[in-house]
């Protein structure tokens, strides 16, 4: 009886524990190739369409430049020069980067506090805060009370209740309750809050400004930052922080010099995710902007609505929108891959 393996065995049995069998490897590469085509072909189509004119698009499909059609820069010239796309683009850059930086900074501080500090928030304080907040909204929106006056009175009443009535109560909320409340803010659909946000910024005379978008995007993306970075900080050895505190370091110094450097890969992955969410945000920008602070998603929608689906012009806007995200993802690829695994294995 021969010990020579058959052809089927050579194809289906792996040569070692660290390698795939030839047949399995071929199937894996085939699936990866098909998935790459699914991902790259639409991007390639958008890119070459931006160099076409109306005739090339209507008489197509044409896929190979200089063979199927003669590429030109007419759509690029029209969208970037004549249509003044630079202003919405700069609005998107400033709003997305600033709001993402603020969200990651504030959210990481909140996540670190939830991991390292034990909170006991009195339930009575939360109830009084909600009642006063509703009272401020009613006073400003319904009775036209100036918002600084309403805010000042509510703050004084809250501090008075905090040092009198609240101190006598015992029911309190813990860290898990605070975390659930933070995450629940992101679960709520944005359309529910967009009208109150619109009225608030209208009263503050901040509609159609970058400040309104930055504040709104920061608040909307804070729950995601807290949710993601909490596990990153939980994986940091507490012994390092305790040693630094014994040497006289404050909580803020421990956070910025020890905790943050150890989770920087996770912060990079979180930063990119939040940046993409802020960059692609449409609903809030549609309600809060008009012309001065208009962002790229609103411009793309307006271009499609007013002029119809002119794919050659739309493709220019799409390429301009996705190029920065692709570039940043490529540069930060190593940090993103490492950040996705931070806190995944706990021993």
Your description of this structure?
The structure is a single chain. The chain is an all-alpha fold and 347 residues long. Helix content is 73%, strand content 1%. It is built from 17 helices and two strands. The protein starts with 6 loop residues before the first helix and ends in a 7-residue tail after the last helix. The mean pLDDT is 83. The chain has helices at 7-12, 22-49, 54-58, 74-82, 86-116, 123-143, 147-162, 175-187, 190-203, 210-234, 238-246, 251-262, 264-280, 283-288, 296-307, 311-331, 333-340; strands at residues 121-122, 172-173. The longest helix is centred in the first third of the chain and has 31 residues, at 86-116. It has a two-stranded antiparallel sheet.
């Amino acid at each position: 009886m021969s010990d020579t393996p058959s052809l089927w065995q050579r194809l289906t049995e792996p040569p070692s524990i660290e390698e795939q069998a030839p047949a399995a490897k071929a199937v894996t590469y085939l699936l990866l190739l098909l998935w790459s085509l699914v991902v790259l072909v639409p991007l390639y189509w958008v890119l070459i369409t931006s160099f076409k004119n109306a005739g090339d698009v209507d008489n197509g499909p044409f896929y190979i430049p200089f063979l199927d059609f003669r590429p030109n820069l007419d759509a690029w010239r029209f969208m970037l020069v004549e249509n003044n796309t630079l202003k919405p683009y700069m609005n998107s850059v400033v709003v997305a980067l600033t709001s993402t930086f603020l969200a990651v900074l504030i959210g990481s501080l909140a996540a670190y506090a939830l991991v390292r500090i034990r909170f006991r928030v009195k339930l009575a304080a939360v109830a009084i805060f909600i009642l006063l907040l509703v009272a401020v909204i009613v006073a400003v929106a319904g009775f036209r009370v100036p918002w600084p006056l309403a805010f000042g009175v509510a703050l004084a009443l809250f501090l008075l209740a905090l040092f009198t009535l609240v101190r006598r109560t015992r029911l309190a909320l813990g860290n898990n309750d605070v975390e659930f409340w933070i995450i629940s803010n992101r679960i709520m659909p944005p359309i529910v809050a967009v009208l109150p946000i619109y009225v608030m910024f209208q009263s503050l005379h901040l509609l159609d400004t970058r400040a309104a978008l930055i504040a709104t995007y920061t608040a909307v993306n804070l729950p995601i930052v807290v949710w993601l970075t909490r596990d990153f900080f939980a994986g940091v050895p507490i012994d390092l922080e305790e040693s630094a505190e014994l040497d006289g370091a404050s909580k803020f110094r421990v956070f910025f010099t020890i905790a943050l450097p150890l989770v920087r890969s996770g912060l990079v992955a979180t930063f990119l995710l939040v940046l993409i969410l802020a960059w692609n945000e449409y609903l809030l920008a549609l309600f809060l902007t008009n012309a001065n602070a208009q962002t790229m998603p609103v411009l793309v929608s307006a271009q499609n609505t007013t002029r119809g689906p002119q794919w050659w012009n739309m493709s220019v806007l799409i390429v301009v929108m996705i190029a920065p995200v692709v570039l940043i993802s490529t540069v930060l690829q190593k940090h993103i891959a490492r950040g996705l695994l931070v806190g995944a294995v706990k021993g």
